[in-house]
Structure formats: C-alpha cells, structure tokens
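Example 3.2
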Amino acid sequence: MFKTALSILLLPVMILSAQPQNLQYSNTVNTYGWWDDSDSKPAQPNPTPPNTPKPTPPNTPKPTPPNTPNPTPPNTPTPPQPGVPTQQKGFDFSNILTLEERLNKKIIGQEEAIRATVDSILPYTAGIHDKNKPIATLIFIGSTGVGKTELAKELVNELSKNPTKSFIRVNMSEYSLEDGVNKIIGAGLGYRDNEKGGILANAIKANPASVVLLDEFEKANSLVHKLFLQIFDEGYFSDGSGNIINCRSCIFIATTNIGAEKLQQAYEADVPYEDALSYVELDLMKKLSPELYNRMEPVLFKAISEEALMHIACNKLKKLSEKIYSLKKVKVDFDSSVQEYIQNYGYNRKLGARPLNRIVDKEISSTITRSLITHVYSEGDTMIIAHDGSHFIASHLETNK
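Structure, written as tokens:
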C-alpha cells in the first residue's frame, strides 16, 4: 500500500526526467499577441544570394576607386589656365600684355607710373592675387596736373566694356566730417534717408566691376579712412542697411598731393624713380596712418617736361580738330603762334598742365565756336587758328569749287 502511494507521487518526476535535456522551444509571440507554434525551429533571416551588394544608406557618398582623382564639387569655378588672361565681368583683360603700350600713347611723360599701374593688375590676370582683396589698390602721388586723373580715366577706357558706367569718381574732400561715412555707405536702419543708400554703396552695387577714383584721398575724415582700410584689406563693406557690398572686382585708385614738392625736388636732383618714394613715404604714413598706407601700392608721377607738354598739346588739339570735323565737316588748322603761346603759358610748376587744358578747352574752343556762329562754313572749308599776341583769332578759308 505504502509502495503504491509512493509510486503514484514519483510518476511525474520520472516522466520529466525522461525528456531530452537539449530540447529548445521555439514558440514565439506573433504580432497578434498569442503563441505561434507553427515552427519548431528558431526563426532565421532570409538568406542573401551570393555576390549581392549590400544596400547603401541614403546620403552616403559612393566609394572612389583607387588612383582616381576626387570628383569636382558642384558649383566650383574652374580655375583659369596658366598664362591665359582672365575675363572679368565688366572688364576685358584679354589684351593686358599690350595695355602699357596703349596707355603710353595717351598719357605722355609718365612711363614709370604707367608701368607700375599695369604691374599691379598683372597678378589678378595671372590668377595669383589674394582673392579676398580688390583687383588692385593704388595711390597716385604727384603734384596737380601731371596726369593722375587722366591715367585713371584712360585705364577704364582700355579695360571696361562700358567705361561710362564702370568709372566711379568720389571727391574725398566732401567727406572731411565724421558724417562722411554715412554719406558713403548710407544711413542706418531707422534713420532718415536710409532708403537712399550711400554714394559708393549704390555705385558698386550697380556696377561691381569698376575703377573707383578716390580724388584727394588725404582730405577725407579719419573715420572714412578706417572704412577704406577694411575695404582694401577684406574686399567688402556693409552698407547702412547691413547688406554686404562686394568690392573684390574693383580697382581702387586714390590720388594725393602729399609730398609733391619733395618729389619734385627729388626728380630735379636726378634721383631714380625707385628711390624717389623715400622722399615722401614718411609724410604719407603720417597723414594716412601706416596701416592704411601699407595696403596701397604707391605710384609716383613726375613733373611734365617741355617736350612732354608739347606732345600733350598736339594730342589735345588733334582731338579738338577731329571733333569739329566730325560735327561740321570743317577742317581746323593751327598756326605756329599757337604752339609758341602754349610753350610760354601752358605749364605751371604748381598747376602742372592744367593751364594747357584751360587754353585748349576754354580759349581756343571759344574762338572756334564764335567763328562757326559768325561765318557761314560749307563742307570742306578750313578754319585757321592763330594768336596775335593778346588773344586767339580765327580765319575762314573757303574751299575752291
């Protein structure tokens, strides 16, 4: 009896002991929440066929084969080829190697200044200049009437596809007060006339590739000089509204009379062009600050010789004669007395060749105008201009028909 009862109690233990010890259950919970006994084996992932590439995660760059150059990123400008002049929007540098020769035909007696000006542009056309700065930043140094402004004008005429729009002239003497900065960049937000902008900001916005002439640069306020220190150093400035004005496609030319007398004395003493700068450099740094001066390339202008003066006079008279003929079909000739008068009164040491400009543009032009109004000229007639010792006179020669 006792053995029978003990057998009954031990029966479940014996059954369990008879089960295999390595049996594993693969029952899992399906998505519906109950047990799934459909498969007694553990779930296995789908086998991957051999030689099947692994999926590439999104936005993962494709591997570059060995010895293959890296692909060029999108929107990356192609650098210019070595030795090939650069084309800049608004400027044409394709004939840069003949620019010096062409300028020497228009600006007489300033060969060294022209060469220094062209040399300052060459690094840009070769693609080796600092891309965070303007194309060139120059300061023309010399007395009045030696061709500083004329060279700037002829430079833009030679380089620009639209010289009228690409020449920005700023009279720096008008910005001698502290508010000069606002006039240049524009009034700040919330101030009156903010919508008008600044004179330089508006001009460069309209024509990013320009020759900017800063006439009488030393007369500007020190705050204005600090503004240009940033422009020359970084190639941009912020206007009154906070907009960035990019100046890196501009050529800046400042003009100054600082040290003009010392420079003249150096040339009269036959000091070489390369050494003459030492006569005026300290004066320039004192007036402009060493930091500002060091960011500009100095270009020296010599006093005009008598030979150069007569060459300039011939060019101006030729242009005037061509202008009259194109408009009225009347030839204009000049008597030898005109040449003598220009030699005597066309040049002044302090004023340079400005008296010559006054003689041609005022006195001789007025004489021609009065003669055209007084006499009846036919096509092909000739007007002869002479000087009788007190004033210019015009004679009318009719064409023989």
